[in-house]
Amino acid sequence: MLGERELALRARRRHVSRLIALSAAVVVAALLVVAGAQALVAERQVRLDGLQQELASAVSRNQSLDLSRATLSAPSRVLGVAERQLKMVSPGTVVYLKPIDPGPSVAQVAARTESVSQRAGAAHG
User: Fold this and answer.
1) Tens digit of pLDDT for each residue in 67-80?
2) Pairwise CA distance, residues 3 & 38, whole Å
3) What percent of the chain has pLDDT over 90?
4) In a domain, 100, yes or no
5) 107 part of a folded domain
6) Which range marks the domain in which residue 56 is found?
7) How far apart are the first and last CA of the chain?
8) Are 73 and 79 in contact (CB under 8 A)?
């Protein structure tokens, strides 16, 4: 028969074995969490790199379109298109017309009429 000392020693060994197994399980779980987090970070980095590449491409395309717009709207090009394709010609001389007096505006006529009505009303009253 085993003595009390031997039983206590075996119980302590079982306790230590369980503690070591539990510690190992915690370490393995922590390593799995770290590996999962690393995979997530790597996936996000790949996505970020792709988005940065798309942004660089869009910026380059925008610069190219700005250059095309500037080239297409240049006065010399517009004048060339007007002369060659639309058959427009520059006038030999420019004649400026003198403005005519169109007469009083509706507001001016209304103001004068109201003013005359008020004076007439004041004279009768």
Assistant:
1) 999 999 999 999 99
2) 52
3) 64
4) no
5) no
6) 4-91
7) 140
8) no
Rounded Cα distance, 55 and 49, in Å = 10
Total tally of structural domains belonging to the chain: 1
Nearest by Cα to 30 from 38, 41, 18, 19: 38
Angle at 112 between CA 111 and CA 115, to 5 degrees: 85
8-state DSSP, 89? -
Inter-residue contact 81 to 75 (CB < 8 Å): no
In-domain check, residue 102: no
Instruction: Tell me, yes or no, whether 86 lies in a domain.
Output: yes
Question: What's the whole-number average pLDDT of the chain?
Answer: 91
Contacts of 2 (CB under 8 A, 6+ apart): 10
Q: Which residue has the higher pLDDT, 33 or 91?
A: 33
pTM (whole model) above 0.90: no
* Angle formed at CA 88 by CA 83 and CA 89, multiple of 5 degrees: 90
